[in-house]
UniProtKB/TrEMBL annotation:
Family, as annotated: Belongs to the ABC-4 integral membrane protein family.
Keyword tags: Cell membrane, Membrane, Transmembrane, Transmembrane helix
GO molecular function: transmembrane transporter activity
Transmembrane segments: 20-40, 277-300, 306-323, 330-355, 361-384
Chain ranges of the ABC3 transporter permease C-terminal domain: 281-394
Protein name per Swiss-Prot or TrEMBL: FtsX-like permease family protein
Subcellular location: Cell membrane
Membrane topology: Multi-pass membrane protein
Cited InterPro entries: ABC3_permease_C, MacB_PCD, Macrolide_Exporter_MacB
Sequence ranges assigned to domain MacB-like periplasmic core in this UniProt record: 23-240
Main subcellular localisation: membrane
Assigned GO CC terms: plasma membrane
Source organism phylogeny: Bacteria, Pseudomonadati, Thermodesulfobacteriota, Thermodesulfobacteria, Thermodesulfobacteriales
Amino acid sequence: MSSLLWKDLIKELLANKVNILFIMLSLIFSLTALNTIYALGKSAEKQILDTLANLNFGKDALLILAGGSRVMGITTTRSDTLKLEDVKALEKLHFVQMTSPFTTGLVEVSYKGKAEKLRVDGVLPIYLQANNWNTFMGKFIDDKDVETINKVVVLGYDIAKKFGLNSLIGEKIKIQDQYYVVIGILEKKGSLGHFPLDERLFVPLTTAMKRIFNQDYIRGVKVLLEPETEIEAAVKEIRKILRQRHGLYGIAPDDFRIITPDMVVARHTATSKTLSAFLLAISLISLVISGVIIMNLMTASVEEKAGIIALRIALGATAHHIIRHYLFMALFIALTSGFIGWLMSLLVMYLLALLTPLRPLFSWGTFLLSLIFSTVTCVLFSLFPALKASRIDPAILLKGL
């Protein structure tokens, strides 16, 4: 760009500083929103993936839940057919490394006169290994507890914190109408989407089935596969075995669900993705609105300075020079707004990370996209006023001077 063009550009910007500022603010707002929303969406997805990895629910894991398809959140098939015998049958498969059956439900739990409904999980000692979990204090359920249907309980970290973290080991907690001895507290795990992992109590599986829920079936089983197992083939084989064991043939629907890590991620990020898509659409619409503002303000500027433009044309400026002038101005506004919008989004991300539990995930790709979006918007919507300026007839306008 020549020094003369730079001078003309600076003069134009200074002469229209209010309009230019208005254009830049609309672009900066749109791009800040675009960058921040994208960063929050990516952060939510990463948090889910990290939590799944922390729970040892990666590509070599499956979750089998009792009950088949659901309509409006209600299971449409029986949910009492998944048994411990099914788990033993699955353990014989060559690609199954480990199984961890469980049952779960909301029951009334009370401690020192305070009662509330809490989630109680019945599990086996292998639960910690299967979920990559450790005790924070005390010990976990052992084989003897399972064999003797022992009335012992291990608390999730948040439950323990609610009841009084440092003084619970050996204390008795009432679950329904029976007292259970607290033998341990698990380390903090956080949450999976909106599901709090640390607000649960754990008892031996046999205790849960016989003393608390009075059932002979389980709610689910986590299956860890041998490394390099093809997950689709494993799902197909497991489904075949469970259908045979449950007497399901032909078009009879499954009375169980097999859930893969990809399905969990899709489920827990669906809401955030929908919201992000909606907000991104709004941001893109605001970019288009910014473009319309650019076009209108530049068109008004062209009409106001028609005489000056005509004079420049009369003195030898070509249509190419006029168009280039306006497009360079649009490019300058776009790049400046894009950069400031990126800096503003970094500030917003920092404040969100500082003041809220949210952890926006920065991406250089988003920064480049914001520059591309702002550039395309500015240049595209500047074409009309630029072409209009280049077509001004100096002979007609100069008659009025």
